[in-house]
Amino acid sequence: MTPHVIEPDPQAGAAVKAADRAHVFHSWSAQGLIDPLAVAGAEGSYFWDYDGNRYLDFTSGLVYTNIGYQHPKVVAAIQEQAGKLATFAPAFAVDVRSEAARLIAERTPGDLDKIFFTNGGAEAVENAVRMARLHTGRTKLLSAYRSYHGATSTAINLTGDPRRWASDTASAGVVHFWAPFLYRSPFYAATEAEESARALQHLEDTIAFEGPATIAAIILETVPGTAGIMTPPPGYLAGVREICDKYGIVFILDEVMAGFGRTGKWFAAEHFDVVPDLMTFAKGVNSGYVPLGGVAINAEIAATFDKRPYPGGLTYSGHPLACAAAVATLQVMADEKVVEHAAHIGETVLGPGLRELAERHPSVGEVRGTGVFWALDLVRNKETREPLVPYNAAGEANAPMAAFGAAAKKNGLWPFINMNRTHAVPACNVSEAEVKEGLAALDAALAVADEHTA
């Protein structure tokens, strides 16, 4: 792809920003305290503003542009579908909808062969837990504290991070538990084996005290994303699978962020040889070009609704434009070996590069990840592991992370920052040269973070 020639146009940028400030209500924000960047365009792993500043996107949008921005084959597929059949109601069989479902089912593990389409990840989670409740006749749901599952009614209650607090009614039937995270172990574990065993015992104890016969589902992000990219230790997910089987609990894996190549596999579950009963997806299924998500359903749960109507649906379920984008994206990923590339770039360039930064910067407490799904846990002190900023810090308390972020942007890198972490989550087809460019920018920004270490 030929690099786009950036033509600065500050006047147009000012107009875009003025209209935004007058009429757009932004998510997760105090509206009067934000200053959104006016974006003029994007291509591949980069985007740029109206002043001519170009940024290497180490966020992949919101960890969804897995094949980068404006891939010509996906753009062409959307255009072709718009000319053929731009939209059609979900109750009908439509060729591109069927093909998208077939291609997704080919890649999901086990017998997750039926696909219910949604508009995004949160709706996928809402419908997955609804299916689990109807299938089991139970109501309670278990999810991890370090998690994010979406912002809709039930999904936000399932979420573990502070964004849940304002909307948590404590009446959604959700119980939270501690999943494994050795670096900040809640179980005083010293090894991955100890962390896995103790986390599984904690989960089974939670089930016992909540009443196994009341629990419909356990939902976990296969590899938690926004919460910190904590790859579960060996044996943990297999252990959860066994616990679910023991008590007749539906096991849901949330692959909204980790799926479609992000971890160097089509789905992160493949790393652990685990098959859930339901799997949610979105984001990378079509690189976010048109909103699409869904639930992959196993044969047993699908059969529950053979004679019994499923009480759920969406006007735009399986929207033809979104499905055309998915078909094209999956074909591009196969043809260009994007999943294999993500694994390779993580093993040979991104992972080693991040670990080398950790050796030189006192602000980096831990590096963790796989594929193009990495996090740097930033700390004040490597020995005590005190986070660089307090949990859920804001304002002056968050100044060290704000300074780090500003330094990254000054060096042409747009970083993914959450609490005391920065995540390295570029496109799955990011080039080696682009990764090295990003690592150099991170190196400079971490020098700023180092100034706040003890």
Can you characterise this structure?
- It is a single chain.
- The protein contains 13 helices and 16 strands.
- It has helices at 10-23, 60-63, 72-84, 95-107, 121-136, 153-158, 192-210, 236-247, 299-304, 320-335, 338-360, 399-410, 432-450, and strands at 39-43, 46-49, 54-57, 114-118, 140-144, 174-177, 215-221, 250-254, 278-281, 293-297, 364-370, 373-381, 386-387, 413-414, 416-418, 421-424.
- The chain has a 7-stranded mixed beta sheet with strand order 4-10-9-8-7-5-6, sandwiched between helices. Strands 11, 12, 13, 15 and 16 form a 5-stranded antiparallel beta sheet that branches. A 4-stranded mixed beta sheet has the order 1-2-3-14.
- β11 and β12 (373-381) form a beta hairpin.
Residue-averaged pLDDT: 97
Discrete helix count: 13
Structural classification? alpha/beta
Over all CA atoms, what is the radius of gyration?
Answer: 22 Å
Major beta sheet, strand line-up: 4-10-9-8-7-5-6
Helix content: 25-40%
Q: What ranges have pLDDT less than 50 throughout 5 or more consecutive residues?
A: none
Shape: globular
Terminal-residue CA separation = 45 Å
What's the count of strands?
A: 16
Beta content comes to 15-25%
- Give helix and strand order, one letter per element, not per position: HEEEHHHEHEHEHEHEEEHHHEEEHEEEH
Sketch the major β-sheet: 7 strands, mixed
Outline:
This protein is α/β, with parallel strands linked by helices and 454 residues long. It is 38% helix and 17% strand. The longest helix is centred in the last third of the chain and has 23 residues, at 338-360.
